[in-house]
Amino acid sequence: MKKLNNKKIKDLIISYKDTPKIDSTDSVYNSILQMNKTGIGIVCIINKKRKLKGIITDGDLRRFIISMNKPLAAFLSENIEKYMNKKPFTVNENYTLSKIVKTMEKKKIWDLPVIDKNLNLVGLCHLHRILKKLIKND
Fold first, then answer.
1. DSSP strands (E only) in the chain
2. Residue 18 pLDDT more than 50?
3. Residues 57-116 pLDDT 10s
4. All structural domains of the chain
5. For residue 90, how many C-alpha atoms fall within 13 Å in the half-sphere facing its CB?
6. How far is CA 40 from the centre of its chain?
7. DSSP string across 66-82
8. What is the model's pTM?
9. CA nearest 47: which of 70, 26, 75, 66?
10. Residue of 48, 80, 112, 125 with fewest CB within 10 Å of its CB?
């Protein structure tokens, strides 16, 4: 167990290439397409230089749809920046597994964007993937 506590999260994350992400100028519809494509209920919103601008989750989208007073087509065509969480919880790529899991438990979340010191997206920490990798290595 001690070995796992010291394991750096960068060894367990979803790579940048495979992280569900869209450009900050994209639509709500494109965020849903990314979630559907990857099977993960979060999309990271970035700018052209990979800087993390925010996130949106499938739960966020459900809550917006339930409370909106406009046609669904109008909502889907809107810019994602209008709806994204602009201050998401994030972690540094050098965090330990123990610190990540404690943060996820405290915040009651399954996914955390992983960023570098310049706030650029490095990947995604997805609890299900971490558990899968840990079980596989046992």
1. 14-15, 21-23, 42-46, 52-57, 91-92, 111-115, 121-126
2. yes
3. 999 999 999 998 889 999 999 999 999 999 999 998 888 888 888 888 999 999 999 999
4. 2-137 (3.10.580.10)
5. 24
6. 8
7. HH--S-HHHHHHSBGGG
8. 0.89
9. 26
10. 48
